[in-house]
Amino acid sequence: MDVKGLNRGACHCGSVQFEVDLPGGFEDLSRCNCSMCARRGAVVTSVPLDAFRILKGAENLTLYQFNTKTAEHYFCATCGIYTHHRRRSNPNQFGVNVACIEGVNPFELGDIPTTDGINHSSDRR
């Protein structure tokens, strides 16, 4: 599956649509074991903030924050699908749910490393 370049994506119901620029394809694919990510089970790719643009439905995004309230997790208010989040470990990046990108089946990506969000590096300061 070739995802290099500009890709479109959406939540399940299509209310939220976005584009994400992946010039080198997927970078830093990961899952996370924190209390939030373990429950949603998403595979994410990391991109700079300016590589991700909401095309439609920004008003339909719901923000959820927990614990330190640093990370910003966005969900479609209609279908509940997690589309992206502003990362706690690097606020200059978004983590994008790869299952929302057109033509991507996360089950075909092989083994995905798991980030240790339970013992987040920001908590060790």
From TrEMBL:
Domain of life assignment: Bacteria
Statement: the UniProt record of this protein carries the keyword Metal-binding: yes
SUPFAM superfamilies assigned to the protein according to its UniProt record, in alphabetical order: Mss4-like (SSF51316)
Keyword vocabulary terms for this entry: Metal-binding, Zinc
Residues of the CENP-V/GFA domain: 7-125
Similarity comment: family membership: Belongs to the Gfa family.
Protein name: Uncharacterized conserved protein
Provenance organism: Marinobacter salarius
